[in-house]
Write a structure and sequence with these properties.
This protein is an all-alpha fold. The chain is 69% helix and 0% strand.
Amino acid sequence: MSPSGTGGATGGRADTSAATGTILTTDATDTEERMPDDPRPPDDIDEKTEPHSVAGLEADVEGPTQAIVRRGGTFAAFRHRDYSLFWSGALVSNVGSWMQMFALSVVVYALRHSESDLGIINGLSNLPVLFLAIPAGLLADRVNRRTLLIWSQVGLGIQALVLGWLYASGNLSASRPVLSLAIISALGLLAGLLSALTFPAWQSMVPDLVPRDVLLNGIALNAAQFQSARLLGPLAAAGVLLIGLGMADIFYINAASFIFVIAALAVIRTRRVTPERADRPRTREGAWRTLTAGLAYARENRNVGMLIISVAMMTVFGMPYMMLLPALVDKALIPAAIIGTARDPLVKAWTSYVMSANGLGALAGALIVASLPRGIRRGPLVRYTLMAMAVLLVAFALSRTLWLTVVISTLTGAAFLTSTSLMNTSIQACVPHDLRGRVMALFVMAFMGLMPVSSLVFGPLGSVIGPMNAVIVGAVVLAGYSLFLIARPRLLSGDGGCVDGAGADGPSAGAATPRG
């Protein structure tokens, strides 16, 4: 899988919202099997703090909620050997993935200094997620998940090696930009395909590695691992360049990082299902009916529908600044007096600084959401964090100094993560148990599936009007939408008040309890 918003071209792995696999099942009994060393009987689960759907829990990867952080101790999942191996391997591999994301964006921009190229490459590499989420869930349900993951990581590692060799041999160069872009597009589509097909399989690994009583904590630590990699990857890439190594070496390092997660997958022992649970008949719905049931619920429940629309608006109009980052650094921050090849080292270094600052802000945003009081009203926070994101994007586009851009990037990362996490938890607070997985599939499609649309629209737009103006256009649309929500507050706090109060099933409905 791939870092949020980077797509398959980065060659990522277990690091995105695993809610993509929510189409696997609509009840946790289908995915959460009884662990042999779990001393509690099946019914001894506190439904007031633990949702039924593992897929719904996994959707919290963007930012752990209070229930996840506070359940079972901060590092309880690390007491389990297999989870620790899995977590460590994924961390190393995800750092490599973020290094490659930085390197690839710089390489693509250097070919023709075109914002359209950035948009097209990002769009193509993310496209498989939009179309393969449901088939991937069915695949993960019918094959050996660990085998599927290992071979997908081998394929992604080979992709990174090929990118490194092509760059080192001069086959990815500004002297033949069209051929270079075609090669990168093909490799990006391949990596995107591998990543999309393994999203649900990654999601299913954590419940296989820890007892159910620390499952929430394991998911929280996975979220922290992803945000940490998002911070460390660009900084590590900048360090590689500072010591005199080249862009090809970053691709090679990413390829080597897959060894760690492959080794972890090879040695971990997944927990076995007890015979009693294994013999229990399972009820599954067709993939199309699963998806349409979520659509029907979102259409009938105004709060949920508006929250999913809000996620889509944030993705399409709020995310382009990261995709256009190399162009923004080049055209907004680097003085015009610096010309020619002298600009390239600055583009590389400054892009890594701004990207790392954004990751730091995202990590801070995750902690902010986790520390919010349980009874806080999420509806107003969603509206005003969307507005804050829009204002910060305008400031980001207008900034002309590196230090100010780094500060704004940190705040923007925090606003983005806080907003999406609040919308995530608010959706889950509204949805009954038996529909939570299906509705969260819509969240993932709005959050990840629409990223190609954003890239394919704002990349060419940036080429026509400039990357700064393109970001401002997106910010203005997002601000207009935020003002609409502020002017119509009932859209996020009506009919049962599930955004700001109890969930759709009442106070006892699992994740329907306010989770901050």
